[in-house]
Specification:
Elements: E1 16-21, H1 25-41, E2 46-51, E3 62-65, H2 73-77, E4 85-89, E5 93-95, H3 100-104, E6 111-115, E7 139-147, H4 150-166, H5 172-181, E8 186-188, E9 213-215, H6 225-233
Parallel strand pairs: 1-2, 1-4, 2-3, 6-8
Antiparallel strand pairs: 4-7, 5-9, 6-7
Length: about 240
């Protein structure tokens, strides 16, 4: 495992990177494929993964062990990113284009994320403590861009505490309410930075902007040989 490398406090250039959290060899393999797509499209970015001590971490610049006892590790670990500016990606992602324009948003905002695409459905309108307007929908926490500062650290620690107290299996309910109560400067990314539906017309012709980050269920670990083959076609 690589040692925890911290940013140089004397440098004026922020350290930028992509962080993954994976549990189990199959999920690490999927994250490794995503990290390779980062290196292909944005070679200026470093990659780091939080995983088990005995996982194969080849393909990542850094690796860290997930502590025992965490119910949903990403909720507890994101504030511990080794980077000054971090893009957290779920493992079932592929980066399709350079991400410099996204990281430029951190010149102005503390954190960025995209809305869930089916925000109107009951599973995305659950309430924990605060009834919120539906014009403030859930954020998909599988693609989060943030810079390390007091406000984001405070937010992540509050989210972790709220998630533990609320008892939901999903983390987006408490993320939404924690965000509502926070003082973060938050920006909503265009959907192409968290593309959840891959349309057949896109590789051939479409007036829509091309996806920058694919975030698809088919990219998760698959038991079916056909689905594994289909997943591996997406690059």
């Amino acid at each position: 495992m690589n040692e925890h490398q911290m940013s140089d406090p004397t440098s004026d250039t922020p350290r930028r990177g992509v962080v993954y959290v994976a549990w189990g060899a199959a999920h690490v393999d999927v994250a490794r494929r995503s990290a390779a797509s980062v290196k292909k499209s944005s070679p200026w970015l470093e990659t780091a993964i939080f995983c088990a001590a005995d996982d194969d971490t080849s393909g990542f610049d850094m690796s860290f062990v997930v502590p025992d006892g965490l119910v949903r590790p990403k909720v507890d670990l994101l504030w511990q990113s080794p980077f000054d500016q971090t893009l957290f990606l779920d493992n079932d992602t592929i980066v399709r284009d350079d991400l410099q324009s996204a990281f430029r948003l951190l010149e102005k905002y503390d954190m960025c994320g995209a809305h869930v695409i089916l925000w109107h459905r009951p599973r995305h309108t659950k309430t924990w403590q605060t009834e919120l307007p539906d014009a403030f929908p859930e954020i998909n926490t599988g693609v989060l861009l943030f810079k390390k500062n007091d406000k984001t650290t405070k937010f992540f620690k509050a989210w972790s505490a709220n998630f533990a107290q609320a008892g939901f299996k999903v983390d987006q309910v408490t993320f939404r309410e924690t965000l509502w109560a926070s003082d973060l400067d938050f920006y909503v990314l265009p959907p192409q930075f968290n593309k959840r539906v891959y349309e057949l017309s896109e590789p051939i012709y479409s007036d829509q902007p091309r996806p920058r980050i694919l975030h698809l269920n088919i990219l998760r670990p698959q038991k079916s040989a056909f689905k594994r083959w289909l997943s591996n076609l997406i690059r």
